[in-house]
Amino acid sequence: MSTPVLDRTAQTEFPVLDVLADRWSPRAFDPETPIDEGKLSSALEAARWSPSANNSQPWRFIVARRDSALHQGIHAALMGFNQAWAGDAAVLIVAVAETAREDGTPITHAVYDLGQSIAHLSVQAHHDGLVVHQMSGFVPQQIRELAGLDERFAPMTVIALGELGDIAALPEPLAQRETAPRVRRPIDQTVLLSA
Question: Are 164 and 30 contacting, i.e. CB atoms less than 8 angstroms apart?
Answer without folding.
Answer: yes
